[in-house]
Design a protein that fits this description.
Rossmann fold, six-stranded parallel sheet, globular, ATP binding, binds adenosine-5'-diphosphate, 2 domains, five-stranded parallel sheet, EC 2.7.2.3, binds 1,3-bisphosphoglyceric acid
Length: 404
């Protein structure tokens, strides 16, 4: 990789110059309260370094998955406020992405100041499959900061997305890899070479279709693949079991059947699950065999027997990569699986990497020892795609150099 980096940019000199930074500030929220600010903290060094060097820093980021239009619950307001607190200065947030407010906020920046644009996914062009639409938004983002500006790609958690503010904008401005992206890649590289065996990958979470695609590529590389969280029910359905109203990707059942056949003993699924009669912390709950989920019940955590099984597999590994909570850990009745498996990883001697916004948040929110993990990555999907051996569009584009 021959990318130019934040160091190169700062050496070039940024005083008085506009720098557009793509960060991943996709934090978990409870209403407008940030329940874990890890991603904001992780984004801070790059932003601060540029501001300290006198740049006019414009941060663009997403929050959640809005459907290409503004939605108050996905506003970056709480994030801009938190970033301001951490920087010790106010961070103005434009109320739009590339509109009049974005132009005003940008134009009013002084040297060393930081501002943010509203959730870039409020603009449908951000996630468009049409390259021309994305390029148009990228040009408008670049237009905000002007022809002398630079772009710093620092949103590691989103570099696997070919999106306007991640990929296309790097073709409009001189583009540099941020410190967070470089640091994350450095650690993950150690897992792609010749990881110490046994190498165990633990997967969970709710982004089921994204991650099912990764399993196929990971299977030949790992000794054990442990699947819990919302991921497991499509596999249980593929084995012919009823899953009630648990998370299910019906159109992926056939893929799971094939994966089960390919994986044999390598793939470990839960043997029991905690089911609830509704998605709520005060729901009625039961622990049932994974093969016996009844109609009207939904699996929201793995059961204690599965925790023992998974903890044994993860605890005896020499290398562990974990992405995705084992259950809906945000609600205490469904936090036991994530806590148990995470504790086993933390207690083990393996080189251990946990990746993903919610998985990293779970470590902190559940009070697990952060120093029990060798690395806590800000990216789940991004890490998985890297481990799978895929090109990350947001990184590959930095190699191309700016074509503007
Ligand atoms: N059985 C389940 N049913 C529904 N949601 C689940 C289940 N298990 C875990 N989750 C949810 O998965 C979410 C995290 O998934 P994901 O975004 O894939 O992880 P990460 O951010 O770590 O990559 C959490 O909010 C958690 O509540
Ligand atoms: O939370 C994120 O990824 P992760 O859940 O895989 O860690 C990133 O912010 C990317 O979000 P996306 O999966 O909606 O593109």
């Amino acid at each position: 990789m021959t990318v130019t980096t934040l160091d190169d940019l700062v050496t070039e000199g940024v005083a008085g110059r506009y720098v557009l930074v793509r960060s991943d500030l996709n934090v978990p929220l409870d209403g407008d309260r940030i329940t874990d600010d890890g991603r904001v903290r992780a984004a801070l060094p790059t932003i601060k370094r540029l501001a300290d060097a006198g740049a006019r820093v414009v941060v663009t980021a997403h929050l959640g998955r809005p459907k290409g239009a503004p939605e108050d619950k996905y506003s970056l307001r709480p994030v801009a406020a938190r970033l301001g607190e951490l920087l010790g200065t106010s961070v103005p947030l434009a109320g739009d992405v590339v509109g009049r407010e974005a132009r005003d906020v940008t134009a009013n920046l002084s040297d060393g100041q930081v501002a943010m644009l509203e959730n870039v996914r409020f603009d449908p062009r951000e996630t468009s499959k049409d390259a021309d639409e994305r390029a148009e938004l990228a040009r408008e983002l670049a237009g905000l900061v002007g022809p002398e500006a630079a772009f710093v790609s620092d949103g590691f958690g989103v570099v696997h997305r070919k999106q306007a503010s991640v990929y296309d904008v790097a073709r409009e401005l001189p583009a540099f890899a941020g410190g967070l992206v470089l640091a994350e890649l450095d650690v993950l590289r150690t897992l792609t070479g010749d990881p110490a065996r046994p190498y165990v990958v633990v997967l969970g979470g709710s982004k089921v279709s994204d991650k099912l695609a990764v399993i196929e590529a990971l299977l030949p590389k790992v000794d054990r693949l442990v699947v819990g969280g919302g991921m497991c029910f499509t596999f249980l359905a593929a084995q012919g079991h009823e899953v009630g109203s648990s998370l299910l990707e019906a159109d992926m059942v056939d893929v799971c059947k094939r994966l089960l056949a390919e994986a044999g003993d390598k793939l470990l699924l839960p043997v029991d699950v905690v089911v609830a009669d509704r998605f709520a912390a005060d729901a009625a709950t039961r622990t049932v065999p994974a093969t016996g989920i009844e109609d009207g019940w939904m699996g929201l955590d793995i059961g204690p027997e599965s925790v023992r099984l998974f903890a044994d597999a993860a605890g005896s590994a020499a290398t562990v990569f974990w992405n995705g909570p084992m259950g809906v850990f945000e609600m205490e009745p469904f936090a036991g699986g994530t806590r148990g498996v995470a504790q086993a990883i933390a207690d083990g001697d393996a080189f251990s990497v946990v990746g993903g916004g919610d998985s990293a948040a779970a470590v902190r929110v559940l009070g697990l020892p952060e120093d029990g993990f060798s690395h806590i990555s800000t990216g789940g999907g991004a890490s998985l795609e890297y481990l799978e051996g895929k090109d990350l569009p947001g990184v590959a584009v930095l190699d191309e150099g700016a074509s503007a």
